[in-house]
Amino acid sequence: MQLSPDSTILFHYGFVTINATILFTWLVMGLLVLSSWLVTRNLSTGPVVSRRQNFLESIISMILGQVGDVTRQPPERFLPFLGTLFIFVAVSNLLSVIPGFKPPTGSLSTTTALALCVLVAVPAYGIIDSGLGEYLKNYIRPTPLMLPFNITGEISRTLALAVRLFGNVMSGSMIGGILLAIAPLIFPVIMQLLGLLTGLVQAYIFAILAGVYIAAGLKVHEETVQVKIHHEEH
């Protein structure tokens, strides 16, 4: 049993190696780009909209509501990033029901790359919100001695995010493989349904945690500004 799609080599020539993780990541990205183009073309701004547009707007409204509840910030600014994370992870996991498809989220390299995107997004949103100098000061508050601890916290949080998603997807695949080997006539349908549910849950958790981390960085800045205002008033 292969634990990761990284071990499935599909093409190798010289220093160029294409494994299942790379191939299926490209396929998911291509599918998402094509689907986005098909879904968003011919959108109407008038009073009468199609069922397709109505369904799309309902999904966007639901995601905006979830993002707003988590971040306590205007959700529109976070929608492109968090929405993309959710859709990519969800589609990757849901497509695992197709025979022969190996979800790229079952690779530690993919989940690490996604977690690194979150690692970059957290300070990026903070810098946009408060400026580079003011954001960097958060790493040395309340004392410069906290600098190594704050940096270590950022890195460990990113690693936890990557390992969490990888471990859940990998363990689900292992359990499914074991059960199918033991009783191939009983468990296939049940495992497919559980796989769909688990894939959606993991995508939701990953996106929500990313939103929590971003919101936490912005909240530190807001609390700092409020403290400064309080001192100036007194």
UniProtKB/TrEMBL annotation:
Q: Which residues cross the membrane?
A: 12-34, 78-101, 107-128, 165-187, 193-216
- One BP annotation, GO: proton motive force-driven plasma membrane ATP synthesis
Keyword Transmembrane helix recorded: yes
Keyword Nucleotide-binding set for record:
no
**MF annotations from Gene Ontology:** proton-transporting ATP synthase activity, rotational mechanism
HAMAP family in the record, alphabetically? ATP_synth_a_bact
Entry function: Key component of the proton channel; it plays a direct role in the translocation of protons across the membrane.
Q: Family, per the entry?
A: Belongs to the ATPase A chain family.
* NCBIfam families named among the record's database cross-references: altF1_A, ATP_synt_6_or_A, PRK05815.2-3
Record's protein name: ATP synthase subunit a
Q: What is the lineage of its organism?
A: Bacteria, Pseudomonadati, Thermodesulfobacteriota, Desulfobulbia, Desulfobulbales
